[in-house]
Design brief:
This protein has 2 domains: about 60 residues; about 90 residues, no CATH class. The mean pLDDT is about 85. Strand 4 and strand 5 form a beta hairpin. Strands 2-1-3 form a 3-stranded antiparallel β-sheet, with no helix packed on it. The protein has a two-stranded antiparallel ribbon with strand order 4-5. It is elongated, with a radius of gyration of 26 Å. By secondary structure, it is an alpha+beta fold. It holds the Pfam family E1-E2_ATPase.
């Protein structure tokens, strides 16, 4: 139903639907019904089939991505988890050339400067490289396990329709001694 709504949202498709429906009124009938309904039906059939194929491909890609394994850092060490089991707040270890399952705030990288490039794949097949920089105070920690010893929190905005922006902040709470 949504596919039909999306198609008839366009003026020309809606126009041809109205013209085709007008052929049921004897006073407005000009030619044979199939000369109006066949082209409209063909266009709608091709569109519905194309949307179904695209939806099936998205379903398969989502299923594949949701079953991919990632290393999750815990107090006891690394644990393998499926991407569908990753929760907000988990510390995920991302390896070189590995796809990331969602928006992330980078806490540490293997580069001294804390920078890394991530490749983003768009729905239209275009790929972009984006520079991301790790949080400076966590980048300076001597070991990966030291992430559990700091008192901090991460704010991440709710999921947005705009896939090109993500707002996340890291706040470290410093201990004050009296």
């Amino acid at each position: 139903m949504k596919v039909l709504y999306e198609q008839f949202k366009f003026f020309l498709n809606l126009y041809f639907l109205i013209v085709s429906c007008s052929q049921f009124v004897p006073a407005l009938k000009i030619g044979y019904l199939y000369t109006y309904w066949a082209p409209l039906g063909f266009v709608l059939t091709v569109t519905v089939v194309r949307e179904a194929v695209d939806e099936f491909r998205r379903y398969k890609r989502d299923k594949e991505m949701n079953s991919q394994l990632y290393s999750k850092l815990t107090v006891r060490g690394k644990v393998q988890v499926k991407s569908s089991d990753i929760q907000v707040g988990d510390l995920i270890i991302v390896e070189k050339n590995q796809r990331i399952p969602s928006d992330m705030v980078f806490l540490r990288t293997s580069e001294k400067t804390g920078s890394c490039f991530i490749r983003t794949d768009q729905l239209d097949g275009e790929t972009d490289w984006k520079l991301k920089v790790a949080v400076s105070c966590t980048q300076r920690l001597p070991a990966l396990g030291d992430l559990f010893s700091i008192n901090a929190y991460v704010y991440a905005q709710k999921p947005q329709l705009d896939i090109h922006s993500f707002e996340g902040t890291f706040t470290r709470i410093m201990k004050t001694e009296y």
